[in-house]
Prior knowledge:
The chain has three helices and no strands. It is mainly alpha-helical. The longest helix is centred in the N-terminal third of the chain and has 35 residues, at 10-44.
Amino acid sequence: FDTNEQTLGMGTVILISSFTGACAWICNYPFDTVKTVMQAGLSSTQNNERSTLRYAIRSIYSSGGWKGFWRGAGPSTFRAMLVTSSRMF
């Protein structure tokens, strides 16, 4: 047992957890975008072609290029930062 153990302050915990939440969300956001397009295609048509992984990726890329996979990531990342930092307490 170490008696010289230091604890992190609340500001440090908030900063670290916010950064962790942002990194996790930015890494996962393209997958979430593809999932959302697949779900929208499944509900909007009787044809299952629009609910495939290939269709979702092509649709996103053709409408926005590689940046299309991260469209809307800013507000979602900010929300993830707030959620992860608030759950630490």
